[in-house]
Amino acid sequence: MKFRTEIERIALHKPIDYSSRIVTLGSCFAENISRILLSRKFCVTPQPTGILFNPASIERSLRLMHTRHRITAEELIEADGRWLSYDFHSSISGNNIEEATRNMQQATYTGNEALSDATHLIITLGTAWIYRRRDNGVIVANCHKQPATLFSRELLDVEDICSSLRSIMEMFTGDVIVTISPVRHIGDGLVDNSLSKALLRVAVERIKSEYPTRISYFPSYEILIDDLRDYRFYGDDLVHPSSQAIEYIGEKFFEVATTPACQQLMQRIERIVVASNHRPMNPRSEQYRDFCQKQLQAIASIEGVDLSKEKEFFEHMLQINL
Predict the structure, then answer these.
(1) What is the mean pLDDT of residues 131-147?
(2) In whole angstroms, what separates CA 141 from the centre of its chain?
(3) Mind giving me the DSSP string for 112-131?
(4) Which of 2, 31, 135, 294 is deepest in the core (most CB within 10 A)?
(5) What is the separation of C-alpha 243 from the centre of its chain, rounded to a whole number of angstroms?
(6) Do the Cβ atoms of 164 and 55 come closer than 8 Å?
(7) Is the dihedral of CA 107, 213, 27, 231 positive or negative?
(8) Where are the strands (E) in the chain, listed by range?
(9) Are 111 and 45 in contact (CB under 8 A)?
């Protein structure tokens, strides 16, 4: 007897492994993907310019990083004592112009360096709705709670989205994994949110046909909507997926995005990470000393993965065990 409909597993064109260098861009769900990858010790640079919701802003952000764009004071606005940019998330800002430009410049440089070494780019598309400045016609990544009269609200069509994705493919020559955020943008209204997600999905499928060996689609949106399909898998706001749903989507991601050999190594790494988070009842016992030595041996047997934090922890615990 079946009680749920699971999404068909479709392997990615080029799986990720522990030699991969990954950059994530996009909506707040991209942060969840980054956190899952980082917790398994993959090499990830998460969203250098902060959360980005629409394809046009993701394209613009990538271009700022690709060209190492020089941030100027003229690009900034002041709001509630903070200096911000319409191209960056509010988390990348400053208390004064100098601090803001420095933080934003560092973000673009960090992104440029990460992208130059990256093998994979993971993009999470949140919405096809955009806000455009009325004074110069430029699409903003974040309105920063400025008056609504400063912007016009518009819906990107499929070709607009495809154009942004094509530009991204020209700037980044590695493999691209695209997913659509399962977060419901209720600020757009549920009907407009549904329209937005549909446009994004059609555009991604069209671009996949143009770059059949370089773009893969991972169905985050469909897993939550069609597989889990229950409000218990949402947070209290009934908008964002719950931690349980995020972990489930992460498991499905690793099933299709990694090789069996990588999954086996990941399990070994997870055991070490879990062990480092364990706090013993008696850290000075001989039993715990043996435990720490075994963990250090396990760490030494793994090459090419940064387990320095865990190694430092177990070495410290051995020192206090003397």
Answers:
(1) 95
(2) 16
(3) HHHHHH-SEEEEEE--SEEE
(4) 31
(5) 15
(6) yes
(7) negative
(8) 21-26, 43-46, 76-79, 82-85, 120-125, 129-133, 139-140, 151-155, 175-180, 215-217
(9) yes
